[in-house]
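Changelog-adjacent note: as of this version, every example in the card shows the full chain rather than a window. The one below runs 115 residues end to end.
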Amino acid sequence: MAAHLGLLRQSRRKQVERLVAHAAEAADRPTVLMGDLNEWRRERGSSLHGFTPGFGPVGRGTPSFPSYFPLLALDRIIARPGRILGPVEVHMSPLSRRASDHLPIKARVRLRQDG
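Full-length structure tokens:
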């Protein structure tokens, strides 16, 4: 699933609820969600906590914004079950710093049990 969540906290909460509900419809299958979640805070009230019922706790993330000096982890890749997701990394290159105000992020997804 891909998502670009809203700028307002309340709209992000509603969007997260819908994403988790949608993912629950395929509870028997691995699910990967990625995108600009527009949330870097992890304290109480963060919309990231809304992913916990469907995906488990959302980690610290990798800073990807702003691309010229990444400080905030707005972009995320999360998965259910979590073990299918390798480390999330930022792709840094001269072009990626110019192409967007966010750096691209990437992760390896392992769907086979043998490796």
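Structural remarks: The chain has one domain: 2-106.
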